[in-house]
Design goal:
With 976 residues, the protein is of the alpha+beta class. Helices cover 43% and strands 20% of the residues. It is globular and about 125 Å long.
């Protein structure tokens, strides 16, 4: 019998940012707040409790107090010698709990209980990041900020997730740290936003009204925190959804009104910032590009078109003063707004980058355009002061370079917006309104009203008509229908729903009217958790991105050195006549030719493309996977999955449906069937294992008098679970064992010949025999079977074609395991293993250098899922997003094992191709820009064309990642 191992949910790998929940404990020392207030100087003060050992008398307590009084920041100490506890009030800005702990231990008293850290989390929208060095600069600035414990910055997502100590720094301080680094930041959410509601207030006149409402809300059951915003007339309430909800909070406010209908509260839905900001960014780049073109187009016309069209361009050569011509003056006037108004963003970005002692794309653009512009200004000034001066200005280089870069950024942000299309579609699945109904004691509908879906509370009854979306997760209480769950699970076929079945928020009711009881609302719904997981996955970095991070550290300085070397390499030979004079174009000299080559080298190199190569592909892949029922929790899981060479399958609930049924039962003694069933039912009643439930259901069918609705007449004592073997209990002073042969051997129960024969016959039929022994004698047995999933054989065969070996690890007996393995085509089997042994088997495989994926149900297989390189949890419904595996297969279909691995391979291949695009432009473009082809072919890369190439490199990488949107599953399993 499979283990009833109850380890709970998988623990997340703390080093993997993708698995990290929004609120995560840190290993850094901190304390749990007992009380927090401000002293007269407005300093935050905390009171914490520590348990201290070896306190034997009052003098020990006095010694501790005297030691702590000498610490700067400690305000009050109370040490109780009776219970060995200390309550210490201190100022977090001046000292920390760790310092206090060390001071107590230095005095010779061990601190036995040190509270867990108090860590808050916030997500920020970061503005102004252009390349990997920008994201690294933001991350570095955050990590250097006092109170920040951990920070992860995503370039493609333009977000940061920050873990911080709220007693040292708040969200405003975190935002200021980003601003000091030269980037904009806006708060998206804080860690306690999970169950928050924003309400708009009306009818408030005085401060007394505000104080009244605040006190009323704070005293309401289930309310955790209240934040009043007097400027916006809003209130934000954090609450426990099990105890209260937004409608109750609105009622509390309105009931507190001193007069009739004086106070009003309504739901306030903040605008979707990501969409709004995305449109604003696209509009900004478009407007800047058009404004730039307004001046750059005439500059291009006056410098490169009209001079070639005689006599139409001759007027440009007319002199105004000395050698200053109309053409030079017009180009100067038109180029200046582009250089300093449109190009201001490059100056600001370069300033902040250099202030951080780093360099980014803005530095390269600023250097290139400044070199062209100010040299051209020098030419113009010389022309004004001399009537014989002849020189070529490069105003068109500066203006056109900025215009092409802005065009590239405009196209890039448009393309980047499409990388999160799948996630955007998921967030839009939830309907805006819902039909709330009220039932009387007889179950009849007494009222029905349309309300905002965000006002729904737990246990509400919702009416869902055909064609309508399910607003929240719940259980059908009345009606029958089919629900299309393809948008959540990827399951194309509508699923039949009857009373007692679960429905998922965001799915569509196809036919029939359903009454649904809300069980999960707000952030607890499966859809919300899926979105949250995908967002976390898109934010975290894949290990493959480390290559881009390493390159970015020295990329810009290397480009600057290369540009300067290029200038020297052309200027010095030109001065000494080491190359023919006819290489230099007319109206140019050797210095100007060398300068053009140097500027081209500066601007052709693009660090942006390198930074976008990985995160854009991960964003598209994780979003695409989520839309097809495969939740890949970030780049780490995505990268590891492509290396998988062995997939280890659990049997029950993975290769099989996990809903075993008893197909036969037999008695081996003269015990009455009623007594036998009662004993087995009593022993198995406390077990949550599927086989235990199947045995109980079968026993009830055999003997209806045993009980109904889960009740049974006999109560078991000394109940104990034996992992991988079964259960034991004392029923009516008799020892009852229910389990497999291993359990019988452990309790020295003899298996007679007819028992062995029954076991062997059923094992050949891939059935599990559950033996029931009473007082050390086998009195009967149940034969249990668990049907194999129809797609299992095809999945194993397809994995074999991909070069992947399949192994089955199960706690079931060898004969049953071998029969199932033969049916699905698996050659390697480990049977009769408990949960810890499953993990050991995986470690053995890893010890041979094999990358292993474990596919299990996420509960009994938790040790193995954690031990594997890639853990794939089978699970559906509302618990899908809270499992801590690397990959969650929402549909519980084995075909998604193939999908996950294949999508990983496609994505890693796409990332590598992106690096080819990104590095290819630089490796090929820089030598050409430096003029390596010019002596042989006369081909050179003008700076404005180099700028176009730079913009094209970023655009090509993003478009390459977008091709993953067309990904299709390699294996489709249809019901036969």
């Amino acid at each position: 019998m499979e283990s009833a191992f109850q380890n709970g949910k998988l623990k997340a790998n703390e080093s993997d940012d993708l698995k990290a929940p929004l609120l995560q404990q840190s290993s850094d020392s901190a304390v749990v707040v007992v009380s927090e207030h401000s002293d007269n100087k407005d300093k935050k003060v905390r009171t914490a409790k520590l348990r201290i050992g070896d306190i034997k008398c009052a003098s020990c307590a006095t010694s501790i107090e005297s030691v702590l009084q000498d610490l700067n920041g400690v305000q009050n100490i109370v040490v109780s010698p009776l219970d060995g506890q200390a309550a210490i009030t201190y100022v977090p800005d001046l000292t920390t709990a760790k310092v206090i702990k060390e001071a107590i231990e230095d005095a010779g008293f061990p601190v036995e209980e040190f509270p867990e850290p108090d860590i808050a989390v916030c997500r920020l929208r970061i503005k102004g990041m252009a390349c990997t060095s920008c994201s690294e600069s933001v991350e570095r600035a955050l990590l250097m900020t006092n109170g920040v414990k951990k920070a992860v910055v995503g370039l493609a997502l333009e977000e940061a997730k920050v873990h911080f100590d709220p007693n040292i720094i708040d969200t405003e301080g975190v935002i200021e740290a980003v601003a000091d680094a030269g980037f904009g930041a806006e708060l998206i959410s804080s860690g306690n936003d999970a169950n928050k509601v924003n309400l708009k207030l009306e009818g408030f006149i005085s401060a007394e009204d505000t104080a009244l409402i605040e006190s009323v809300l704070e005293s309401a059951e289930g309310v955790n925190a209240v934040e009043m915003d007097l400027k916006e007339n809003k209130v934000t309430v954090s609450y426990d959804p099990d105890l209260t909800g937004p409608r109750f909070l609105i009622k509390c406010i309105e009931d507190a009104s001193p007069g009739p209908n004086m106070y009003h509260a309504s739901l306030h839905v903040p605008p979707r910032r990501r969409e709004t900001e995305g449109l604003q960014e696209i509009r900004m780049y478009r407007n800047q590009f058009l404004f730039s073109c307004l001046f750059s187009a005439p500059v291009f016309l006056f410098s490169m078109v009209l001079p070639m069209l005689h006599p139409y361009g001759d007027w440009l050569e007319c002199r105004i003063h000395n050698a200053l011509t109309i053409g030079i003056l017009l180009r100067w006037v038109l180029c200046t707004p582009v250089q300093f108004i449109v190009g201001r963003r490059f100056y600001v970005g370069a300033y902040h980058a250099l202030r951080r002692k780093s360099a980014n794309m803005d530095v390269l653009v600023a250097l290139g355009t400044n070199a062209a512009y100010f040299y051209s200004v020098y030419v113009a000034i010389k022309a004004i002061t001399s009537d014989k001066f002849e020189g070529q200005d490069f105003f068109e280089t500066s203006a056109m370079l900025i215009s092409f870069i802005l065009l590239g950024k405009f196209l890039e942000v448009m393309a980047k917006g499409k990388t999160s299309d799948a996630l955007a579609k998921l967030t839009e699945l939830s309907p805006d309104t819902a039909s709330l109904i009220t039932l009387d004691s007889d179950g009849n509908v007494t009222s029905e009203m349309q309300i905002s879906a965000q006002l729904l509370q737990k246990n509400d009854i919702i009416k869902i008509v055909p064609g309508e979306k399910v607003p929240v997760d719940g259980i059908v209480v009345d009606g029958q229908s089919h629900v299309n769950e393809s948008m959540i699970t990827g399951e194309a076929r509508p699923i039949a729903k009857r009373p007692g079945d679960k429905v998922i928020g965001g799915t569509v009711n196809d036919n029939g009217c359903l009454l649904v009881k809300a069980t999960h609302v707000g952030s607890e719904t499966a859809l919300s958790q899926i979105v949250q997981l995908v967002e976390a996955a898109q934010l975290a970095r894949a290990p493959v991105q480390k290559l881009a991070d390493r390159i970015s550290r020295f990329f810009v300085p290397t480009v600057v050195v290369a540009a300067f070397t290029t200038w020297l390499g052309w200027f010095i030979p030109g001065e000494f006549g080491l190359y023919p004079r006819n290489w230099i174009p007319k109206a140019m000299d050797g210095f100007e030719l060398a300068l053009q080559f140097a500027i081209s080298v500066l601007v052709v190199a693009c660090p942006c493309a390198l930074g976008l190569a990985t995160p854009t592909a991960v964003m598209v892949a994780t979003g695409k996977g989520a839309s097809q029922g495969v939740l890949i929790k970030g780049g780490n899981a995505l990268e590891k999955a492509h290396k998988v060479k062995t997939v280890v399958f659990d049997k029950t609930g993975t290769l099989t449906f996990g809903k075993p049924t008893v197909v036969s039962s037999v008695l081996f003694s003269g015990i009455p069937i009623e007594e036998f069933c009662a004993m087995a039912t009593a022993a198995e009643a406390n077990s949550e294992h599927p086989i235990a439930k199947a045995v109980i259901e079968h026993a009830k069918k055999l003997c209806p008098k045993i009980g109904s609705n889960g009740e049974h007449h006999t109560e078991a004592k000394d109940f104990e679970v034996h992992a991988g073997a079964g259960v034991s209990a004392k029923v009516d002073d008799r020892i009852v064992l229910v389990g497999n042969k291993r359990l019988m051997r452990a309790f020295s129960v003899t298996l007679e010949r007819d028992v062995e024969r029954y076991i062997a016959e059923n094992e050949q039929l891939a059935r599990t025999c559950v033996l029931v022994a009473i007082d050390e004698r086998v009195t009967g047995a149940f034969a249990v079977t668990d049907p194999v999933k129809p797609e299992a054989n095809r999945v194993v065969s397809f994995l074999r074609s991909m070069g992947i070996t399949s192994i089955m690890v199960t706690g079931d007996n060898w004969a049953t395991a071998a029969a199932i393995a033969k049916e699905v085509g698996i050659e390697h089997v480990f049977a009769e293993t408990d949960p810890l042994e499953k993990a050991d088997r995986i470690k053995d495989l890893q010890g041979k250098g094999v990358t292993v994926a474990m596919v299990g149900d996420g509960i009994n297989d938790s040790p193995a899922l954690v031990a594997a390189d890639v853990g794939m949890a089978i699970g559906a419904g509302t618990d899908v997003a809270i499992e801590a595996a690397d990959i969650v297969l929402i549909k519980s279909s084995l075909e998604d094992v193939v999908t996950a691995i294949d999508l990983s391979r496609r994505t890693i291949s796409r990332i590598r191709l992106n690096y080819v695009w990104a590095l290819g432009y630089n490796i090929l473009g820089m030598p050409i820009a430096a003029g390596i082809l010019y002596p042989f072919t006369g081909i050179r890369l003008p700076p404005w064309l180099a700028g176009a190439c730079m913009a094209a490199s970023s655009l090509s990488v993003v478009c390459s990642s977008l091709l993953l949107q067309s990904y299709n599953k390699p294996l489709y399993v249809r019901d036969s």
